[in-house]
Amino acid sequence: MNTRIHRKHLAVATGLAAVAAIATTAVSAASGPQPLAADPGPFDGTNPANASIPTYDYDDPSRSFVVQAHFGMHGATVNDVSVGMGRSRSHLGDPSLLELRLRSATDAPLGSIDAWDPRWVFEETAGGGERMEIRPGPGMLITPFDADAESMVVYDVEAGEALTTVDLAPAIREYCLDHPEDAQCVSADLAVTASEATGTGFSVVGETTQVEVATTVENLGPDGPVDGVVDEVVTAPAGVTVTPTGSTWDADGLAVGAPREHASSYDVTCEEPGVHTVTVESTIEPALAKVADPDASNNAGTAELEIECAIPVKLDIKPGSDRNPVNVNEATIPMAVLTTEAGEFGLPLAFDATTVKVAGLRIGDRDALVTSASGVPERHGKVHLEDVTPKDGDVDAMLHAAGREIPVTASTTELCVRGTTTSGLSFFGCDVVDVVP
Ligand SMILES: [Ca+2]
Ligand SMILES: [Ca+2]
Ligand SMILES: [Ca+2]
């Protein structure tokens, strides 16, 4: 039984090697062709024995990626990634146990570094020798910093497999936000400066209307041009569904002082009658991790649009006639909004026509009614309640429109009605007409 097992991590051995390398350089410089006496150089005569303690150079631009992970036999779990303010030791001469493959934001290869595998440890053998063993456990990878390297594939060369892909972007983002002066970092205040939703804002249950979202983004500087990515997230209240539920678009090459506009379109389908407010929040952020946005408070903009979902109703122009002939000078066109059960005439909801309010009720062309509720009022200013032909026992709402005031023209093919019920819900329905001279 071996009672004196002794192991040391290769990193320690490597660290010592690095120190040895520095020492070697110093010796060779000191033993150069010029003797010290002939070239005093910058030596100021300070006695090393009582010289002040050297101060650490906090402005040393050197920095490194420090990745802490738990290494298993076939994978690694990353615990922490940071940008360390210090020089990464050289990987020159490291064996090809791990290959650390750096990738850009677009996954383009930026080169690779051979590195020791933190899982390898030396173990003393019974005969006094040493052998290398692979042991899962925690380990640290330190590589030179490169602000363009947004991920690092840790590849186990011997096993021929990738252990993990390390996301370096959050660490670069944090570092560049803290160090805008770093030559590798870029500082650009991206902002959403306007966001507006437009649309007709009116539809019926079971049908779809569009919402257009116009968003303006801008690079407020100081650096540019830079690429931004805008994320739009839709919030749909109960009563409507919106597709898609969001979108992402690129604002590439944003130069300082050159705003960029973009339009997105969403389909809003009414599920329940009533007024529903759809919200779209647009948020911009730099595409690259090395681009720091010093002010996050202006990165989002919100656009809202109210969608009025009406109850679709059955309108019967000239009850008793299927052809519905009207002429362009007709003073009074009779029409009825029918009381219906859900499913009747293919309508999704039941409708009680006795709840029709005459106030605000308008009759006319579909587009004018949908976009601006423009049409003519009920000609007599009242709703005539009666069970129209064909009589089915349900009381309907008889209305009359002044056709020449709409006006009905030779090209009119349908007339519609838009109004509200006594409970405040909208309704909408259309019927065909056959315009006769
Ligand atoms: Ca900003
Ligand atoms: Ca009819
Ligand atoms: Ca009826």
UniProtKB/TrEMBL annotation:
Keywords, sorted A to Z: Signal
Q: Signal peptide location in the record?
A: 1-29
Q: What is this protein called?
A: CARDB domain-containing protein
Ranges for region Disordered: 31-55
* Lineage of source species: Bacteria, Bacillati, Actinomycetota, Actinomycetes, Propionibacteriales
Q: Which domain of life is it from?
A: Bacteria
